[in-house]
Amino acid sequence: MTAKKISPITQGVSGVDPKYKESFDKVAVGLCHVDLNGRFIHVNDFLLDFLGYEEDELLSITFSQISREEDIPESLAWIKKSLSGETQSNFSKVKQYLHKDGHWVWAKLSTTLIRDEHGVPSYFVSSIQDVSDLKNAETALDFSLQQLNEAYAELEQMSRKDGLTGALNIRAFKEELLDAMERYHRSGQNVTLVFIDLDDFKQVNDQYGHIVGDEVLTTFAKTLLNQSRRCDAVARYGGDEFAMLLDDTTEQEALDFCKRLGSEIEFETGNGKTKSMSFSFGMSQLKKNHRTVEDWFAEADQHMYRDKESSK
Ligand SMILES: Nc1nc2c(ncn2[C@@H]2O[C@H](COP(=O)(O)OP(=O)(O)OP(=O)(O)O)[C@@H](O)[C@H]2O)c(=O)[nH]1
Fold first, then answer.
1. Residue whose CA lies nearest to ligand 1 atom number 21
2. Whose CA is nearest to atom 6 of ligand 1?
């Protein structure tokens, strides 16, 4: 007479070879058997520790009750395919389980369908491996990467700016000019370049010191930035020289803009007194004969010097 094969489902893990039972309980990974309705039928000590439940508590629920709602359809779809024989493969997934304390723990689940000697589905055997540390490290890495990307974006922005005034630097402004030229050649959109230079700025430095001089430059840049639109570009082109790119603007409209800026700016001299200083400007609307950025810029520069000479 041959001994009848004992199914762990009918007999229970405790009913089989004690060595098997001991291995099942002591192995350092969560193990369980789950019936065809998803109910836990055997669970090992590691799984109880990992999830924080008493054995009778876990044996009275289904895996769905301690799974994230969004994970359940995928598991059910695999169970359906597996029971129908459409798939023979394991189901593996890194997922979260609800710990008895109410927090979610990360685990790597691997499940296989066990069939009896006639090929009839009997139960599922699953290993549930604690991967919380890995997941926490992954989250920390994601966070660091995000911080790194933010710092990189900030650095990139800073590399386009003049350190003192926050206006664009020459390199970034030249890029804006090239883009504007491209747009002009594509669609003929009006764009005007304005070149502005403070008059006798050297005297401010000489009379009131460099700190006051710096303050004048910063305040003037702020005025230009405040008066410009998002589509415009404002740059510090050198010591006391500024440039603006006014998008969708004719030379006449740029002139109106400069008139609105006024002819003088006020600044504090540091001893409670206020002084004013004038500035000169020149402009050039982009035309077909401007072959390069330098051609275009030279014309605005010439017009600015003409304005400066006429005001002397
Ligand atoms: N405070 C301060 N001064 C600067 C800075 N960069 C350049 N300068 C000074 O700006 C002054 C520019 O002098 P100039 O080019 O002769 O210009 P200007 O005195 O305005 O004369 P005009 O252009 O003929 O009106 C120089 O004295 C430079 O030292 C800066 O970042 N801060």
1. 200
2. 239
Nearest to 22 by CA among 47, 45, 49: 45
Confidence of residue 6 (pLDDT cuts 50, 70, 90): very low
Residue 12 has pLDDT above 80, yes or no: no
Q: Contact, 144 vs 47, CB < 8 A?
A: no
Which residue among 196, 201, 264, 280 is best mutated to probe the pocket of ligand 1, counting the most ligand atoms within 8 A of its Cβ? 201
What's the pLDDT score for residue 307? 84
Tell me the CA–centroid distance for residue 206 and ligand 1, in Å: 10
Q: Tell me the pLDDT band of 122, cut-offs 50, 70 and 90.
A: very high
Which pair of tokens denotes residue 309? 């000479």
Please check the confidence at residue 109 and state whether its pLDDT lies above 90: yes
Q: Is 201 in the pocket of ligand 1 (CB under 6 A)?
A: yes
Give the closest residue (by CA) to ligand 1 atom 18: 200
Q: Which domains does the chain have, with CATH numbers?
A: 8-132 (3.30.450.20), 160-310 (3.30.70.270)
| DSSP 8-class letter at 181 | H
